[in-house]
Design a protein that fits this description.
Elements (H helix, E strand, L loop, with lengths): L3 H28 L1 H11 L3 H15 L2 H14 L4 H14 L1 H7 L3 H17 L6 H27 L6 H12 L2 H14 L2 H13 L5 H22 L5 H27 L3 H9 L5 H22 L1 H11 L4 H6 L12 H18 L20 H23 L5 H31 L6 H21 L6 H7 L4 H13 L4 H27 L7
Length: about 525
């Protein structure tokens, strides 16, 4: 029978460990946060730099899942290309092994030292600054984590005498795959291979889990981590989903390359483990197994990246909305040089303006190819995201501007960003208002008129044709005409719902015409050499 206080100690230790792990993730995000993302976007460009940056990212976050999601965010912002993000994600798992190695030391003593350091900083009021408080929170979370592991180790020591534990390991000795499956299952719940590996190491040190079983649990945890990422990101599409599936492959590659060695070694896993423990401590051996799994996965994935990329694209093809609204001209390095960055921002604005006529496609299905028509809400969300990236790019460039000419251009870009936002919002509402009312003569006339004016506006601003004088006439005030149309709608006896939608749409039509005149007055978008 296991003493009650040992059971409570093990449960309390598990609670401290998991709480410390959560606090560690929060505190590292507060310390690193935007700076780490900016660093990765700027320096993780080549294969070698991506590997080094990925390892650093894994060491900071201590989670391959978190590193994958950071890579997804950098992909979405255009700061990283897919090939670079793949290398970053693969090597992030190597960095997560740092915590496993720390856990191989005298765990509880390390935790007490960490908590003691936090106590000293509070005693002498050393954490009065935000950076000091963030660092103290990081050390405190590590202290909780290691103290919890120490309690788990002490509390679990009594388990080795329990009859059900003895019986379980008799069965697992006959079925080695059982430990592997346990590692997979627990990791699917915890979503962290490092967490499960540290627990396996702790249980081994307490004498509960034999070394061979602990190694199999670590291998299973590695595969479970990849499956967990694939499951959590099942709702994603395109490059974000490709990156998640890639992380799953990296984990799988590490397992299938190491497991045959463990299974086919002369004399079996026990013989291999016996040889290795002559040179390494048991805890260090478990930590090295975890590290080897991550390195093998990263190296194998780098060797096969070109052949696997087409399969990733087939499994998670890019949606049409991404290919049309992904940034093409915004580079983080350019913001330091306004003379280069501002023309790039104009080019990206030109792409957004060129997409404005297609806002009306859902109302012009007889005139356009249905395969290229995007849902109104999906289009609007993607267009607004791209516009937000342009706004951020211009704002960062403005902070580096020293020239009066740059300032004038920045004001023009900012004014055009605001005008594009208003146009996109108004077009989105206009399409929503007229959707579902059927073929109404007035609706068709407004839609085709707007499409014509938008097309001429894009041609003029991009320098394709000079329609400026014609556009000035087309966008002149038509208040009296529209008011007459509204009065006729009020007196019409046809369907009330359609009349109401048309009545609202006439006001939106007027606003859109006025907004296009404002955009025209800002100037063209043709970038200067």
């Amino acid at each position: 029978m296991i003493p009650v206080h040992q059971s409570i100690s093990a449960l309390a230790g598990l609670g401290l460990f998991l709480s410390g792990l959560h606090m560690l993730a929060v505190s590292t995000q507060q310390i690193a946060g935007r700076r780490v993302r900016k660093f990765l976007g700027r320096y993780a460009k080549g294969p070698l730099s991506a590997a080094m940056a990925g390892t650093l990212l894994g060491a900071v976050t201590q989670s391959s899942s978190a590193a994958t999601f950071i890579g997804i965010g950098l992909l979405g912002s255009g700061a990283l290309e897919l090939s670079t993000a793949l290398g970053l994600s693969a090597w992030a798992s190597v960095g997560t092994s740092l915590l496993v190695f720390l856990a191989a030391i005298n765990i509880q003593l390390l935790g007490l030292y960490a908590l003691g350091m936090v106590g000293i900083t509070s005693l002498f009021n050393l954490n009065r600054y935000k950076r000091s408080r963030d660092l103290a929170a990081l050390i405190f979370s590590l202290g909780l984590l290691f103290l919890g592991l120490g309690l788990v180790k002490e509390g679990a020591a009594g388990l080795r005498e329990a009859a059900w534990v003895v019986e379980f390991f008799k069965i697992s000795a006959e079925l080695p795959v059982l430990g592997f499956l346990i590692g997979v299952a627990i990791t699917l719940v915890t979503q962290s291979a490092g967490t499960v590996s540290i627990l396996a190491l702790t249980l081994n040190l307490s004498g509960v889990l034999p070394l061979e079983e602990a190694i199999l649990v670590v291998c299973g945890a590695n595969l479970g981590s990849g499956l967990s990422i694939a499951m959590v990101t099942s709702h994603l599409v395109g490059q974000p989903r490709q990156l998640a599936l890639w992380q799953c492959f990296v984990k799988f590659a590490g397992v299938i390359s190491l497991m045959p060695v463990l299974m086919l070694w002369p004399g079996g896993t026990s013989a291999l483990v016996g040889t290795l423990t002559q040179h390494l401590s048991v805890s260090a051996l478990i930590a090295y197994v975890y590290l080897v799994l991550q390195v093998l996965g990263a190296v194998l994935s780098a060797l096969f990246v070109k052949s696997l990329l087409p399969s990733l694209i087939r499994l998670a093809p890019e949606p049409l909305v991404f290919t049309r609204f992904a940034p093409r001209h915004l580079y983080a390095e350019a913001v330091a040089e306004p003379g280069l960055a501002l023309p790039l921002a104009r080019l990206e604005q030109g792409r957004l303006l060129a997409e404005l006529p297609a806002y009306l496609d859902p109302l012009r299905l007889g005139e356009v190819d249905p395969a290229g028509v995007l849902p109104n809400g999906e289009r609007h969300q993607a267009a607004e995201q791209l516009l937000a990236q342009i706004v951020e790019f211009v704002t960062e460039t403005a902070s580096n501007s020293r020239s009066d000419d740059d300032v004038a251009t920045i004001f023009a870009l900012t004014a055009r960003n605001e005008a594009i936002h208003s146009l996109q919002d108004s077009l989105h509402s206009f399409v929503n208002t007229l959707a579902g009312i059927g073929q109404q003569e007035l609706a068709t006339a407004m839609v085709e008129s707007l499409h014509l004016v938008l097309t001429l506006l894009v041609e003029t601003l991009s320098g394709q044709q000079d329609n400026r004088d014609f556009l000035v006439d087309l966008t002149a005030d038509r208040g009296d005409l529209m008011e007459g149309i509204r009065q006729s709608l009020l007196s019409d006896s046809n369907d009330r719902g359609s009349r109401q939608s048309l009545f609202v749409a006439t006001s939106m039509f007027e606003r859109l015409i006025w907004l296009m005149r404002q955009v025209l007055s800002i100037g063209d978008l043709e970038p200067q050499a």
